[in-house]
Amino acid sequence: MSLLDLAPVVPVVVIEDAGTAVPLARALVAGGLPVIEITLRTPAAADAIRRIAAEVPEAVVGAGTVRTPDDVTAALGAGAGFLVSPGTTPSLLTAMVAAGVPYLPGVATATEAMTLAEQGVREMKFFPAEAAGGVGYLKALSGPLPDVRFCPTGGITPANARSYLSLSNVGCVGGSWLTPAVLLAAGDYARIEKLAAEAACLRTSP
Ligand code: 3PG
């Protein structure tokens, strides 16, 4: 099964303290969101991925903000089960293809999506979704590029997520709203679980 079909929402997590990783992942899984993207933006990221991969087997943990081949190596070393990038360079794509785990290279235009499709890639992150044209842009791409599917990320909220999820070329959406820094700092995992449970219903509930 494709990464895009495992859950309607992929929480995008910026983690400052690796000690929060396991309870955070457990809360997201309990809420119904097993796919978790840990961004490689903080020194704690690799350790967080390592801990989740080791201690929360129900989670599918991957690395986000992957920008270089070295990032791919670091993510795989930590045990990342998938890779997500904000944009795509030739060397990054080569490293992602060779990684042996699912990957979502970032695109923001028709030309970028076509360039990846030429390389055989059919699943991509659309970033920054709202700023790059949002639901209207993605809907327009579904005509000429019906075989390409996206995970839009960047500016997705509980208010607009359902519109994205209703598109034929969107498998899931990504967003940081489920794991705000204030809840992580407070250790409010019950609230995170509740946010995850609400998000897990987005595709089906009216
Ligand atoms: C990111 O890489 O920061 C993601 O796209 C999350 O964006 P968001 O904070 O707008 O959800």
UniProtKB/TrEMBL annotation:
It comes from Sphaerimonospora thailandensis. The keyword Lyase applies. It catalyses: 2-dehydro-3-deoxy-6-phospho-D-gluconate = D-glyceraldehyde 3-phosphate + pyruvate. Keywords: Carbohydrate metabolism, Lyase, Schiff base. SUPFAM superfamilies: Aldolase. Pathway: Carbohydrate acid metabolism; 2-dehydro-3-deoxy-D-gluconate degradation; D-glyceraldehyde 3-phosphate and pyruvate from 2-dehydro-3-deoxy-D-gluconate: step 2/2. Homotrimer. GO terms for molecular function: 2-dehydro-3-deoxy-phosphogluconate aldolase activity. Belongs to the KHG/KDPG aldolase family. This is 2-dehydro-3-deoxy-phosphogluconate aldolase. It comes from the Bacteria. Its EC number is 4.1.2.14.
